[in-house]
Amino acid sequence: MYELIITLILISLGYFFGHRAEKKHYKSIIAREKVMNSLPAIASRMPPQDGAYDQMLVSGNVVIANDYFKMFVAGLRNLFGGQMRSYETLLDRARREAILRMKDEAKALGAQAVFNVKYETSNISGQTKKRMPVIEVHAYGTALTKI
Amino acid sequence: MKYENPQIPEGINVSQDHPLKNFLILLIGSIVLIVTLSIVLGVSGGWLAGKIPFSAENKIAAMYNVNEDVDDENVPELMIYLQDLTDQISKAQNLTDDMKITVHYINSDTVNAFATLGGHVFLFRGLLEKLPNENTLTMLLAHEIAHVKYRHPIKSLGSGILVGIAISTVTGSTNSDILGSAGLLSSLKFGRDMEQQSDEEAMMTLHAMYGHLNGGAELFNIFHTMRKAMDVDELSEIFSTHPHDENRIENFSRIAKNKGWQQTGSLTPLPDFFQQALKSEMSVLEED
Predict the structure, then answer these.
(1) A15 Cβ under 8 Å from any chain B Cβ
(2) Does B2 fall in a domain?
(3) Would an 8 Å CB–CB cutoff place B230 in contact with chain A?
(4) What is the pTM for the complete model shown?
(5) Is A107 on the interface with B (CB under 8 A)?
(6) What is the DSSP letter of B116?
(7) In what order do the strands lie in the sheet with B120-124?
(8) Which of A29, A66, A80, B70 is 20 to 30 A from residue B194's alpha carbon, by CA?
(9) A vs B: CB pairs below 8 A
(10) Domains held by chain B: number
(11) What's the angle, vertex CA B45, arms to CA B41 and CA B50, rounded to 5?
(12) A132 min Cα distance to partner chain B (Å)
C-alpha cells in the first residue's frame, strides 16, 4: 500500500515539475530559434561556392533527464507497443537545444553559416537495472566564416 | 544560392495529445490486462493443481517441518481425542485411504483454524476454548477436512503460483519461496465458493454423525462475536474471501431446510480434559 502511495506521489511530482520544465524549455527554444534562424545550419556537405571561407568545427551538446511520469507512461507503453509519445518531446527538445548551442558557438566565431551538420545521441544512464533514461544529444558541423 | 533555416511549425515531431490522456488510456488498458490475466491464470492454475495427486501434495508438504511450529506434545490426551474425532469425520466424508488428515494444535490466542497442504489441519487454542460442545468442534473440523477433500489448499497454491509468476515476469521482481517464510503455517486464501462448498460438506458430515445439525451454526456465531468484540469491520463482501458470518448462518438454515435436516437435537458435551488441558496451556503461556 505504501509503495503504491509513493509511486503515485512520484508520478504526480514527475508530471507537475516535468510538464512545467518542458513548457518553459519550449518557450525558450522557440524564442531563441527566431533569433538564431539568421545563422543557417545546413546538412549539405557542399559548401557555398561564392568565395573563400575559413572552416572551423563547432558543436553543441545537451543532456536531458527523464521524469518519473514519462518513465511510468513509457513502461506501460512497453506492455502494448506503439509510439512512445512521452519520450518524443524529450528528444525533440534535446535536438533543438543542441543545435542552438552549436549556433551560439558559431556566432561567437563570427560565422555566416554552419555546414555538414550531424547529430550523435547516446544513453548515459548507466548499467543499473532500474535506470532512469538520461540522453545526450550532440550536434556538430563546420562553421564557415568569410575571409 | 540561398541558405536559410525557416521557423518550422510546432507539433510535427511531437504528438499534440495531452500526456495525461495517453497515460489514462495506458493505465486503464494495463489494469484490464492484469485483472484478466490474473483471473485466467488463477482459474487455470487452480484447475491444473487439482489434477496433482494427493501423494505429490504430501511430498510438497514434507519439505516443511510441521512439528517445529506446533504444540501437539504439550497436550497428548487432547491430541488423541482430536485425532480420533478427525478420523471419524474423514470416514464420514468418505475420504480415500491415501488422504490422511493430521490434526495439529497451536498454543496461541488467535481465534482461528485452517487446513493446508498434505492434509494438515491446524487448530489454535483461542478458538478451541470458545467451542461449547463436540458438535461445534465437529463442524469446525469437518469444514477444514472438507477443504482438504476438495483439494482447496493445492488449488489455491496452484493459482497463486501462476499469478505470482506472471506478476514477477511483468514487474521483474523474483520471489522463489512458494509458501513464504512462514512455510506451512501461512494460511492459504480460499475463495468464497470454496468456503461455501466446505460449509455444505461439513453440514452433511454433522448430519451423518449426529443425525441433526444442532451446534453447527454456533461456529459462525463464535467468529461473529469475535469480530464484533475486536471491532473488525467486515469488509464489504466483494473483497472478503469468507462469506459474511450472517450470510453463513442464513445459508446454514436454508440448506438444512432444503435437505430436510433437523436443526435441533441433543448436544454431545466435550470431554472434561478438553477445557482443563487448554486452561493449563494458557497458564504455561502466561508464565512465559
Answers:
(1) yes
(2) no
(3) no
(4) 0.69
(5) no
(6) E
(7) B102-106, B120-124, B113-116
(8) B70
(9) 58
(10) 1
(11) 155
(12) 16
Among the partner-chain residues A41, A42, A88, the one whose CB lies closest to the CB of B15 is: A88
Give me the CATH number covering residue A29.
3.30.110.70
Each residue of A91-117: pLDDT tens digit? 999 999 999 999 999 999 999 999 999
Query: Over the stretch B159-211, which tens digit does the pLDDT of each residue have?
Result: 888 887 877 777 666 555 555 545 566 557 788 888 889 999 999 999 999 99
Laid out side by side, the sheet with A134-146 consists of A53-65, A134-146, A113-123
Whether B128 maps to a domain, the answer reads yes
What are B7-37's pLDDT values in tens digits? 888 888 888 888 888 889 999 998 898 889 8
Closest by Cβ to B1, choosing from A34, A48, A80: A48
Domain boundaries, position A52: 2-146
Q: What is the distance between the alpha carbons of residues B197 and B263, in angstroms, rounded to a whole number?
A: 19
Minimal Cβ distance to A73: which of B1, B14, B22: B22
* Residue B152 confidence (pLDDT): 92
Measured between CA atoms, the residue of chain A closest to residue B10 is A30
Residue B261 maps to a domain? yes
| Rounded distance between C-alpha atoms, residue B79 and residue B168, angstroms | 41
Domains of chain A: total: 1
Is A119 part of the contact surface with chain B (CB cutoff 8 Å)? Answer: no
* Domain membership flag for residue B9: no
* The predicted structure's pLDDT at residue A130: 64
CA distance B44 to chain A (A): 23
* Interface check A41 vs B, CB under 8 A: yes
Per the model's pLDDT, the better-predicted residue between A128 and B126 turns out to be: B126
B20 and chain A: CB distance < 8 Å anywhere? yes
Q: Can you tell me the distance from the alpha carbon of B140 to that of B201, in angstroms, rounded to the nearest whole number?
A: 11
Look-up of cell digits 546538412: A43
Q: A57-71, B126-140, B230-244 — which is least confidently predicted?
A: B230-244
A79:B17 CB<8 A: no
Distance of CA A4 to the CA centre of its chain: 32
